[in-house]
What does this fold into?
Amino acid sequence: MKKISFLFYTAWAAPFLLFTLTSLAQVQSGPMVGYSEMREVLLWVQTKQAAKVKFMYWEQGNTALKMSTEEMVTNKNTAFVARLIADQVQPSKKYDYEVWVDNKKINVSYPLSFQAQVLWQFRTDPPTYKFAFGSCAYVNDAPYDRPAPYGAEYEIFTSIAAKKPDFMVWGGDNTYLREPDWNTRTGILYRNTHTRSLPEMQPLLGSTHHYAIWDDHDFGPNDSDRGFSLKNMTSEAFRLFWGNPNYIFEGACTGTFEWGDAQFFLLDDRWFRAPNDRNDDRTYFGKAQIQWLIDALVFSKANFKFIVTGGQIINAASLFENYAIFAEERNYLLQRIADEKIPGVIFLTGDRHHTILHRLNRFGTYPLYDFTVSPLTSGPGKPNDKEKTTDTFVEGTSVENKRNFSTFEITGKADNRVLKVSIFDSKGVEQWQREIKASELK
It folds into this structure.
C-alpha cells in the first residue's frame, strides 16, 4: 500500500495544490457529504494511510459552539476510508465543518458545508430545492486505459458545483472498472480510490450531499449481470465509497430517501439481472425488488416520486440494454404502476452516453417521463436512429456527442408545485429546459 500511496501522490500532486502541504500528505480524497436527514448527516473522507479522523462542525454563523463526530482510525482493509455521523444537527439548520486528521485540522481552499433537512410538514409549504443528476464518469488512468483516452472535460464537476445543488444523484457508471481491476479486491478498491481522487471533483464533494446507484461498470465488467463472480466485493466497495442512508437487500444497491416533497427510489438493475442472452429467464429487477418498489410507491406521500436506475425504462426501442429487451417484466412493472394508480412517478436513467427525454402517454392517466442524462466525463455518443422513430421520443431533447449534466429544481406553493428540468453542457451552458407541474402527474 505504501507503493500505491506514493504513486497517487506523484500522479495527483500538482492538481492537489488546492490543499495545504499538511493536507496533501494525509488526505487522499474528500471530504464528501453523504446523506442528510433532520437529525443526522453522514460525512466521509479517505486518508492516504492509517490515521485518526474526526469532523468538527458548527451552525453557520456560530463558530463559538463547535460539535464533533466520534473519532476513528482508518485502515488499509477499508481503503483508509472514514465514514462518520454528525448526530447533533437540528432540522432546517446549515453547518460548516472541518476535517481533523491525527489531531491536526486539514485546511482546504474551498467551502465545506452541509445541511440538515427542513422540517416543513404541518408548518409551511414544502421548501424550494435543487438537485443535480448525471451518469457515466470515466477518469483516465494511462497505464490501464484503452489506447485512446476515453475521459475528458473534468471541469463539468466545477460547473455542477457552480449551480449550487442541495444534493446530487449519481445515475450509475460512477467509476469504470478496467480489466486489471474487476477480478481482485485490490483492483476494485484501487479503481474507486482513483476516480474519487479527481481534483476537479473535490469542491463538489465537499458541500453537496451525494446519493448513488450503480450500473454495469461500477458493478463489474461491461454489461455484467448477477453471474459476475465478484459482485459481493464491488457491493462492499460501493457501500464504502458512497453515503446512501439505507439498503433494502443484501448486496444490491436498492434503497430510498426523501428530500422535501420528493422521494427517490434507487433501483439495482444488475444484482438480480439474468444475462442478456438467457432465453429461459428474463429477469431484470426481479420479483422481490419490484414488489418492494410497488409497496414503497403506494406508501409514499411525495408529490414527485423519482425512480432512479441505470438503464432506460420508457424508451420503447428494444436495443442495447434498455428495459424493452426484457419486455415481459417491463410491461408488468408499468402495468402495476397503472393498476395501483400511483401519482407523481418520474424515471431518471443513464447508461447511454447521450441525453434524451422519453414520454409514454397512457390512456386515462398521466404520461410517464424518463429523463436519460449521460455522460458526465465518459466518451459521448448519440441515440440509434431507431430510437428517434419511437412514439416515446420527445423532439428537441436529444443532446448528442456532448458531455452534459442536469439540474432538477422544485418550487411553488403546496398546491402548485413545479419541477424545472435543465440540461447543461460541461461548461454549464444550458441545452434545453422543461417544466412539469405536480398536478399534471395525477
The radius of gyration is 21 Å. Residues 216 and 224 are 5 Å apart (CA to CA). The chain has nine helices and 21 strands.
